[in-house]
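Weekend entry, working from home. Most of the wet-lab plans are on hold until the incubator is repaired, so I used the time to fold the two sequences that have been sitting in the queue since the last round of cloning. Logging both here for the record. First:
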Amino acid sequence: MKRTWMFFGCFLLYSAVIISQTAGIKTNIPYWGLITPNLGIEVALGKKATFEVSGGFNPFTLPDNKYLKHWLAYGEFRYWTCEKFNGHFFGLHGLGGQYNVGGWDIPFWHFKNLKKDSRYQGYAYGGGISYGYQWILNNRWNLELTLGGGYAQFHYEKFPCTKCGTSQGKDVHEYLGPTKGAISIIYIIK
């Protein structure tokens, strides 16, 4: 896992150095609400196209035997209807990550079968389409709203309690629904 984050960090630094066109460094504000530090970089590919790479990492143990440890990475190609880093865009994204989650009661939709006293650990991958809008705040700062939906597969091992080490078996959960949501603040590099 350390090698993955080292590669991701080197990629971001390398990308920022070699870019002669516009780029933006961003963070998803609501993701911080899940105690997940996150960072992304978006680079211009042309007048109306950009590519974003972003990721988040939560290594923290929460009170009351709750786990939300995970890392998640996104890659997204975006087509802008007017000009890059301004206005409406449509995207095609892929995602992947690993998780160790337990102690949560989520009584709705795809997650209603999760048991509060159980723990789930595994990996996920998927992709989808997105729509977003970016507002220019000033010469260097932008604000972005993005929503996306698609498909993901969760491969996991279930444990009977949040602290137990005995596996109850492996399974795969297929998911169709929201796959991306962000309110991001962006610093533009010109």
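Second, folded right after the first finished:
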Amino acid sequence: MARNVRRLMAVAAMALALCGGQARAADPPKTPTIRTIQLQVDPAPEPRFALQYLLETPYMEQRPGNAALLYQTAIGQVLEANQGEDAIDRDTLNHWYSSPPETLPVEDVRAAISRFRSAFRNLETAARCERCTWEYPIREEGFTYMMPQLGEYRTLSRLLCLKARLEIRDGALDQALATLRSGVSMARDLGGGPSIIQHLVGVAVAAGMAREIEGWVQAADAPNLYWALTVLPDPLIDIRASIQMESAGLYAKLPELLTLEEKVLSNEQVLDLWRRAAMLLGDNEEGSGWWLGKTVMIAGAMKRYPQAKARLLEQGHATERVEAWPALYVILLDQHQQFRAMRDRFFKWTHVPYTQARSRLKQADEEMSQLWRLDGDGLTNPFLTFLPATQRIRFLDARLARDIAILRCIEAIRMYAADHGGKLPKSLAEITAVPVPVDPLNEKAFHYELTGGKAVLEGAIPPDGGPRDGLRYEITLR
């Protein structure tokens, strides 16, 4: 489908860069070629004080301040510290991050991340801040504004993951919990910001922290984090700000659209607005893409005029008024109404659980494809290209929720084993001390079975995903 290729490529590249090495490949039990995560764990009862371990700072321990300023400071400190001949290059960092804990060059990693102590301290302070306000001109610039140094959060989050991994390995679990709390807080604050790309980065950071919790549950005598995971916000990362910005971000650069119903534009004004829309989509000042000159533009637009006029008349506009309007204004008004209707059709379903929204988002995407096919002989509606790939975004949100839910299941299994003489449950239904969550990607129970002395716990491959979107654990008790 002809979408805004540049925007979607930027979103995809950012998400893949941050998720690289984090997307836990998994497979149905009958397909052993896909990586399966082996966990060796100790039985772990519910802590005596159930809420002793938390992955967010309790309200009464928070402090006044804006966490965003501390995150920006931490980014600057990472860039300043990572210089010189002994700087960590991106490939090395990615290799360390993706390596299994048992193959990690521990002393090399320890020496390398020690230089970032100041940045880590700022992240711990940010996790205690009572608010996070990203004070940049998003309302003035709309979605054309890119958060400064957004890509550097990839480096910062991976350094934080390596720090937690070493602390877990060393048995410094209290410090590891503080590190995980810093990462979860950064993911929540970053992902709750007012742009879709920023939201996806936050989701990727949170996925990285979930991966390190896999290491926590395997540590000797690791406290049970069932309630720490359960009391996290659901969803962990609020998408509302970014959806609202994406819904209205176009108007920051094309404010005439806001008064289009009240103020009739001339043909020349409409052409200028289309030109500026083309520039937002990546065309240069000369209009080298679909903006090929006024003659071609007008010829293509006029093919839409009869249908645009008919739709406006159906909506109740007086015939004499519509016929008096400049032809290109009629087309523009129809385009804008089409954009608003399709935009709301996509965005309204972001406010309901993904399993309820999945089919409706797919339907809206198919309707978008149909609109592009219908427009193939005339002027494609340029405003539709500003709509993000909402279905995929909501899928990634639900996949993160699945990662958290399945970790809760693991901790419920460890809790059961502690209460039943070190035995694994025969089924998840045997776990009654705490609620066992279902898979947010399908609203069904996670697959569970005992086989060969180990428990297999699996989130099935979702109907709109691939093998890398499934998740399988094989759990044995020490």
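Plan for Monday: verify the second prediction. Residues 1-34, 287-291 have pLDDT under 50 and may be disordered.
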